[in-house]
Amino acid sequence: MSLSVLTLVRNRQAHLDQLIAGLDRSVVTPAELIIIDMSDRAISTPTAGFPIRIERLAGERLPLAAARNRSAALAQGDQLLFLDVDCIAAGGTCGVVAGLLEAEDVVACPKVLYLPSGAAHAAWTETDLDQAGVAHPVRRFPAQGARIETNPGLLWSLAFGMRRSTFFAVGGFDEAFVGYGAEDTDLGFRVAKAGVPMIFTGDGAVYHQHHDAYDPPLQHFAALVANARTFHHRWGVWPMDGWLADMRAMGLIDWTSDDLRVLRPPTAEELAAAKRPSSAVF
User: What is the pTM of this model?
Assistant: First the structure.
């Protein structure tokens, strides 16, 4: 069996270079890296010890679901490892994910450690990243080994592996979700409905490189609202409830168990206030 790593990039050349550096140091290197380039200007063509294929998908919108589906369609491996461009895989991660997928038809999620600003410098070592990385407070991984995670809402597109055949059997990412938000949660729900277990493993790590972020992500306000409605219509529950609660508290939306209405868009001042300080890890 062979593992294809898939990523999307939009104006983050430095993050992509570190992702590739991590894969190049892997004990088991991937069969290929597929890059969907959504940048304003085409990325510099990288080199590595494995094949790299790039497809351009430029434009103002962020069709994340469609872009990820396209990367999977281009992949030649029978195993897929989706990595966000701000991720660095530890040396053993590709091998761990490939082993889990070969043994059983599962969704394999390696543990994620979040890095503070400056941690992923050019001369990083895996020991440096291990020491600097901070575990996410909500998504808890075993220290070693693997366990089944029964909450399908905890699948997130940051880092996960699936058999290619299973990904397409469940329909891939639903392209009704346009832009940012809920497309990975929807995939998690459909995977669970299909009876495919989700595995959280502590044996392979992914290090999340620091970048500017917003909490809540008001720069994606319109997409969040539209995708939340789509998800609720399909599953009868609301995704991203923490962000929706924040936006309700700000007076941006009227949100109940049954309905979500926009009261007004966020102001420039509110967007600026939502930007997390550079010292923040999450």
Answer: 0.94
Q: Give the bridge partners for 36, in sequence order.
A: 8, 55
pLDDT in tens, the chain (282 residues): 799 999 999 999 999 999 999 999 999 999 999 999 999 999 998 889 999 999 998 776 778 999 999 999 999 999 999 999 999 999 999 999 999 999 999 999 999 999 998 888 878 899 999 999 999 888 889 989 999 999 999 998 999 999 999 999 999 999 999 888 899 999 999 999 999 999 999 999 999 998 888 899 999 999 999 999 999 999 999 999 999 999 999 999 999 999 999 999 999 999 999 988 876 777
Burial class (CB in 10 A: 0-12, 13-18, 19+), 39: middle
Give yes or no for a contact between 71 and 36, defined as CB atoms under 8 angstroms apart.
Answer: yes
- How long a stretch of residues is the chain? 282
Single out the residue of 124, 122, 88, 108 nearest to residue 205, CA to CA. 88
Domains observed in the chain: 3-208 (3.90.550.10), 218-274 (no CATH)
3-state helix, strand, coil in the chain (%, to 5): 35, 20, 45
